[in-house]
Design goal:
Two copies of one chain form a homodimer. Chain A is mainly α. Chain A is built from nine helices and no strands. The first copy, chain A, has one domain: Ferritin (Up-down Bundle). The radius of gyration of chain A is 17 Å and the shape is globular. Chains A and B meet through α1, α2 and α3 of A and α1, α2 and α3 of B.
């Protein structure tokens, strides 16, 4: 868990208009050797995107204003689009995408219930933070896919997320309500553990625990650092 | 309510791969003179599409299988896309689309609660049937919009709905369960009244009740006939 010590101490973050997944800072050690087969990878990442879509849709349904509904709509649309593009990749290989996806639904549904949150703000914080971690994770994992499917998956994940709107809604609410800010900071620390467990469950272990851990540890450390940066951006203390 | 008597008695329905809104059979008398101003029209139709998206998203969340979730996803995506395209039309005219939409949310939210249905199948039947009626209605109403905005709105409404998947799910379930079929037939007859009330509320009456009714009556008669055809397609007796 001390992988961050190996990173350069000075980092200049240039603000970007449309923040994307930033994996350029990830350590050279990657998860490539721990990537599962193509179909389980696609089934899992497809269902994760559907879960993100469902949470965002649910948040749209519960949004207090039309303006909030509208702000969240593009993020829901983008997650749905990613889901459909992953399903299309599955369909290029087999006729029944749902059979490839089905094994992953109970675990991810359980996870969703754990990180759903007690109200609309916790739900938004959760979907913002957890989808960030999971997009990063599946982007890293894609490096180990054979042929051109890896880059294609990265391109799908790297497309616009629409989640800057969630950032704006949360940052504004947190600025105006310090009690909410401290509650969401706690919640943001709470969801990361469950999310990393989902990530771990997607990894294909080689059977050599020592070398597996050597690969996983620096990547997870960097995933936690990226999570901390997302917390910072919302104005939350990680 | 006897407008159908004026239609030719023999009609050959050619099956279409992707059923779209079919307004070619609508009477020549149209709603053009009863069309509201551009912004109220756009605000209302934008929120109707958002409501369709929210109902479909909710149905995806409640779907019993991944296959059903996936089958419904394109319909949700299409409704969201239509919502966003209408919002873009509003934004070409004013900076705050949510203020244009807001006046219509209480009425449509109340309507949604009325036609939501008691379970997943009633919800699906409702969204299939009511979105069909409302798409037809707003397509007809668009004829009275000034300039090129009318055809642009028709093009948005006439895009792929993705709702043939709902048709398939319902038809299959109804074929396998006559009790469900008779329950949904009753439900399908039930939702049409509330939907026509929403349509009526969107009409800009001229203040001459007699001529207003002369315009509305044949159009509503044909909208009911189109609803009956959608019921037939599902295997339901209207």
């Amino acid at each position: 868990m001390f992988g961050f010590l190996r990173r350069p101490k000075v980092r200049i973050d240039i603000p970007r208009l449309k923040p994307r997944i930033d994996t350029s800072s990830y350590p050279k050690v990657n998860l490539a050797e721990l990537t599962p087969e193509v179909l389980p990878y696609l089934g899992q990442v497809a269902y994760v995107q559907l879960a993100i879509f469902e949470e965002l849709s649910d948040a749209i349904g519960r949004a207090p204003t039309v303006a909030a509904k509208q702000a969240l709509a593009p993020a829901a649309g983008q997650a749905l689009d990613k889901h459909e593009r992953f399903v299309a990749e599955i369909r290029r290989r087999v006729d029944t995408p749902s059979e490839i996806i089905a094994p992953f639904t109970p675990g991810i549904d359980r996870y969703r219930a754990l990180v759903k949150g007690a109200d609309w703000y916790e739900q938004l914080a959760s979907v913002y933070l957890t989808s960030g971690i999971l997009d990063d994770f599946f982007t890293l994992l894609a490096a180990g896919l054979p042929g051109d499917i890896g880059p294609r998956c990265v391109a799908i994940l790297d497309a616009e997320t629409g989640r800057d709107a969630i950032d704006r809604i949360l940052s504004e609410a947190i600025t105006g309500d310090p009690v909410l800010g401290s509650r969401l900071a706690m919640w943001g620390r709470r969801v990361v553990g469950d999310t990393l467990l989902v990530a771990r469950s997607a990894i294909h272990l080689t059977g050599n625990p020592e070398s597996d851990e050597q690969r996983i540890e620096p990547v997870f450390t960097e995933m936690i650092a990226a999570h901390t940066r997302r917390m910072d951006r919302l104005g939350l203390t990680a």
